[in-house]
Amino acid sequence: MSVRVRFAPSPTGYLHIGGARTALFNWLFARHNNGQFILRIEDTDQKRYIEGAEQNIIDALHWMGLDWDEGPDIGGPYGPYVQSQRTELYQEWANWLVEHGYAYKCYCTPDELAEMRQEQMANKQPLGYDRRCRYLTPEERAQKEAAGLTHVIRFKMPLDGETTVHDVLRGDITVHNSQIQDPVLLKSDGLPTYHLANVVDDHFMKITHILRADEWISTAPLHVNLYEAFGWDLPVYAHLPLVLNPSGKGKLSKRTQAFEDDGQEVLVKVEEFKEAGILPYALNNFLANVGWSFGDDVEKFTMQEAVPRFELQSVNPAPSRLPYDKLDWLNGQYIQELSPLELAQAIKPFLDDAGYEVNPEALLLVMPAMSVRLKRLPDAIPFLRFLFEDVPLQETAESLTNKQMPYENAKEGFTRARDFVRDVQPYDLDRISEGMIEIGEGVTLNGKAGPFLGQMRLAITGQKVSPPLFESMLALGRERTLARLNEMIALFD
């Protein structure tokens, strides 16, 4: 049997990090089994539909590097892959259930349902639909049809017995049928509810395994009964572990933006991770560790390395917290693996947003030295500010001296450095490093270059935190470096 799984988000907003984890696990499972990963858009909840949300979800998945074999943007043999374009199919099968005695038309108005609920509350009865339309006689139904009353279609749940759902991760889940109401399958506007569309689509798209969030466990018994009513083969169910807040206290909220948990910022939208300067490889690695383990105490791994190891049975069903304490570490590790060009390309959008005009050559020069210092891509901005703006002179002659490099030594060191920068040919990294070290060793009391080089870096960049001196001088260029040194020397006159 060829494995076919799907990720089926609703375009009611952004791609939540919990949904991204579900998508990733489906993708890993499909790729591990040489199967197909399908993207389906479940947009039948028109009241909550948000314009542009579908494209936002697609863009977020693309950014994560998750590719699909069939979907709304690329098509496939079982399309369309947007539920609002499959309405006739749902109506056909909802009516099939009515015709074969597995469902019925319900003519109750919203006012009647509200009144029924109030009575149940007043009498301290269980809340829910009381199935009154299930027991209408043929004559009563004919009267309501003749009166032109609108209706929904409800499923006839068995009134007794139990339904057992086998979950690969959790074993058998058994529910008394009396606990499940007769749910609406087709609304009065002709659109399906989640329950009908989900089962019909999974059958006709030949989905073999359903990997979804644990919040859908309660719907599984109903869906099993729908499959049995249709006479269709059941897919394999696996309800993924609950995602907890980083502190482990409570379920991760489906908030619309980042929030704090025990003083720690928690990002919740995939686009927030991107905007925060997290690399997609790091995000995938981060999410793969939520409920699954690579093994061998390995925490950092690529998805290509994870695919051969990803067995569904190895997913831990227990609730799992988001390991945000590892996110920056992972991201820093992946940043260090980028080539200078890749890192410069990754950093450039953040510099653009900060309003800095980028000199690509200067940026490339400092990337090797920068990579080990970054946890997130925007961290580069304060490091590189001296390249894009003239940092106001904050130093005094005294602040540029130290115990090993008193006043006259400092003045001599900056003067010699200015003359060196003016005359050296070529102005490259090797010559700069050799020249600066030689000058530093000559002007410090202990004969070591360190005390001079530290003050030089402060003089050149005007920043206490910056890339290393030699790379900074090269990136800044000969003329701007000379100008900065002349400013420093003027302090000693």
Low-confidence stretches: none
Overall form: elongated
Round the Cα radius of gyration to an integer and report it: 32 Å
Which whole number gives the mean pLDDT?
Answer: 93
Helix amount: 40-55%
Oligomer: single chain
Question: Strands across the major sheet, in which order?
Answer: 3-4-7
Structural class: mainly alpha
Number of helices: 19
Q: Count the E strands.
A: 13
Strand % is 5-15%
The profile of the biggest β sheet is: 3 strands, antiparallel
- What is the CA-CA span between the terminal residues? 84 Å
Task: List strands and helices in order, with pairings.
Blueprint lengths: L3 E4 L9 H16 L3 E4 L13 H12 L22 H13 L3 E4 L3 H13 L15 H9 L5 E4 L6 E6 L3 E6 L7 E3 L7 H11 L4 E5 L6 H11 L5 E5 L2 E2 L14 E3 L2 E3 L3 H6 L4 H9 L14 H4 L13 E2 L2 H14 L2 H14 L6 H11 L9 H9 L18 H17 L5 H15 L6 H12 L7 H8 L1 H13 L3
Parallel strand pairs: 1-2, 8-9, 10-13
Antiparallel strand pairs: 3-4, 4-7, 5-6, 11-12
